[in-house]
């Protein structure tokens, strides 16, 4: 059974912010993140984390083991191009989640996906002003 885990982080304006992610309970009180974090930095899908239980609310405490997945945040300046680009990312093995009614997406790049291919796709679209992106969590194998 999945649980919600709250991630507390500092946003771009240095304010304290929160985001929740789904996580699967593992042995020894550890959890595995089971969706793509939207805003929280330095975490990716399938990472193993420790949590703190505060009166029934689970809070992220520590990253125990990186999954080798990377997370990239994308904002489209021309959202009419998003469907094509997201499909192209799916074709190379990535998964993504989007925000309803907003041109903001977060992309999961699994361990076995060649990040250079993903980066080339994103850089080409950035150069022509379609989007901008941020490497929210770049795994060692994708550096």
State the gist of this model.
InterPro entries: DUF4265. The protein has helices at 82-91, 115-127, and strands at 3-10, 16-25, 30-33, 48-54, 57-65, 70-76, 95-98, 104-109, 131-137.
Please give a structural write-up.
With 143 residues, the protein is α+β, with helices and mostly antiparallel strands. It has 2 domains: 3-65, no CATH class; 70-142, Alpha-Beta Plaits (2-Layer Sandwich). The protein is 16% helix and 43% strand. The strands form 2 sheets. The protein has a 5-stranded mixed barrel. Strands 7-8-6-9 form a 4-stranded antiparallel sheet, with helices on one face.
Radius of gyration using CA atoms only: 16 Å
- According to DSSP, the number of beta strands is 9
Number of helices: 2
Quick one: overall form?
A: globular
Beta percentage is 35-45%
Order of helices and strands: EEEEEEHEEHE
Strand order of the largest sheet: 1-2-3-4-5
Overall pLDDT score: 95
Counted up, domains total 2
- Helix % is 10-25%
Q: Kindly identify the CATH topology of the largest domain.
A: Alpha-Beta Plaits
> What is the name of the CATH class of the largest domain?
Alpha Beta
Question: Which architecture of the largest domain per CATH?
Answer: 2-Layer Sandwich
Distance between the termini: 33 Å
Low-pLDDT runs of 5+ residues are none
Q: What is the makeup of the main sheet?
A: 5 strands, mixed, barrel
- Going by helix content, strand content and strand pairing, the class is alpha+beta
Pfam families: DUF4265
InterPro entries: DUF4265
Organism: Zunongwangia pacifica
Protein name: DUF4265 domain-containing protein
